[in-house]
Amino acid sequence: MSMIKQEELETLRELIKDIDTAMLTTVTDEGLVSRPMKTQEVEFDGDLYFFTKKETNKYEEIKHDQDVNVSYAGKSYVSVRGRAEIVEDLNKKKELWSKAYETIMQTSYDDPNVVLIKIKAEAAEYWDSGNFVKKIAFLYKRMTGQDSKSADVNETVELKN
Hints:
Strand content: 35-45%
Largest sheet: 7 strands, antiparallel
């Protein structure tokens, strides 16, 4: 699998940057579970971050199975597959914390119960019929050597080394 190209990263960044809520899907004993999560305001660089608390189901689920999916729905639809890990680094929590989290979580970043879910993106799929069609169609042509057949482009980008 090839390393993600800078252009593809830019495309994904553009597609998800204005979407405030993502759906995080984790694996449970009963099957898959999805729930809404507030999107980080940091630039996407191949890793996604979400705040949670230790006494949540998703915390336990990620400890048990690291395979996750994050989906975004806005002007376009983006699905990111990856591996999740729990991050307790105080500096990282401070860097990503905002007033919005204080309101939502009713606590502060230095609460030991507050943790970050870091998702290392492995692959992303996106569907777009808006402004990015030409760019994505161009990427599609460049990556496959053929033209995309429809105006609605569905493309998979591998992000793993």
